[in-house]
Amino acid sequence: MNNQQPDKRLLREAFDLVVAVYDDPKSRSQLDAWRKQSPMHEQAAAKAEADWAILGLVEHVSLSLFDKIKLAIQLRLERFAEAPLKLIPPLGIAMALSTLLYVSVDEQAPTPIQPSVVKVVTPTSKPKVSTKHYQTAWGQQQTVELEDGTEVWLDWSTDLKVSMTDSSRHVSLLSGKALFSVQPDPNRPFTVTSDSAVATVLGTQFVVSKLDHQAVEIEVLSGAVGVSDTNHNVTKQLGESDVVRVTDGKLSEVKTRPLAEIGAWRDGIIVFEQRPLIEALEVLQPYTSYLLDTRYIYDGERPVSGTFILNKGDDALRAIMQSYRLSGDVEGRNTLVLRSETPQRPL
Questions:
Q1: How far, in Å, CA of 220 to CA of 204, rounded?
Q2: Which run of H or of E encompasses 65?
Q3: DSSP assignment of 276-343, as one string?
């Protein structure tokens, strides 16, 4: 029977890898690859994991604080003698301490170097995270004030999640449209993400709309907004009246839009000032009973101007169809396929 035990070098390597997995679970693959090198590596890894399991449970045992520290030191005394600071951060026993703690430890195991004082450092606590989830139904709008004082207007059929810490403010727009009036805080940037778009501000008013076909639009009412894709490959700075779209991770050119159009939906109206027909239909769609298919409109750049009532979206759609000579056929449950009338050929 083979009673050979792993040497100290392997045990040290194994323990370092196990501690690394505790700090970053993504490093598990490195430990798995290391332990497959030989049966001795596997044995060392198993022992390190067993030691680590005991250390992780120390804080749950009904022992005095001194006995907990003493037990931990006995388990890894040789390891501590060579690199004292590597032992300390993982110990659960230090969680309750707010300052450095010095404890005398009796000599328990034979070792060339016997420490008489242990310095236990309080690990950095995880930041406190506050999360909220807001939703509106079709035909419903809502105004909420976040804990930092930021006001958010949610349009119809909007779904967003808010996460805040002492150093960050983050909103995920899952669907719909929202206008943000951000409370300035230079130490906590305010970030809104939706699909592949990221908008970051310190204090401003802007609108983020999640459109179909993987597109997100950002409109600025006041202040400045930095917009980038989620990989931060390209970043553009937007000012008052600026508009940009992020489609499939690509940023469009920055355009301007009349302030009267931006955020008018808060007052129950839709305002168009020379808006291209295709874009006007895109804005109107969420307030109608249909999903609009505009692929067969050949003159979609014709401008649309006018003011429409938000809760009469179907009436507004009919008015635009009549004015711009569009026909429509309902397919499936609620898809309305719009077509331009065929232009007459010259004789």
A1: 8
A2: helix 65-75
A3: EHHHHHHHHGGGSSSEEEEEE-S-TTSEEEEEEEGGGHHHHHHHHHHHTTEEEEEETTTEEEEEEPPP
Least confident range of 37-46, 185-194, 210-219, 336-345: 336-345
Q: pLDDT (tens digit, 9 = 90+) per residue, 84-111? A: 444 344 444 343 333 333 333 343 444 4
Element (H, E) at 19: helix 8-23
Termini Cα distance of the chain = 102
Q: CA distances (Å), 6 to each of 3, 12, 18, in order?
A: 10, 10, 16
* Cα distance between residue 154 and residue 265, in whole Å: 10
Q: Residue 23: what pLDDT?
A: 66
Report the pLDDT value the prediction gives residue 126, as an integer from 0 to 100.
60
Q: How far is Cα of residue 306 from the mean position of the Cα atoms in its chain?
A: 37
pLDDT at 117: 40
The alpha carbon of 17 is separated from its chain's Cα centroid by a whole number of angstroms, namely 29
Residues 237, 200: Cα–Cα separation, whole Å: 10
Q: Going by DSSP bridges, is the β-strand pair 326-331/335-340 parallel, antiparallel, or unpaired?
A: antiparallel
Distance separating alpha carbons of residues 306 and 177, to the nearest angstrom: 21
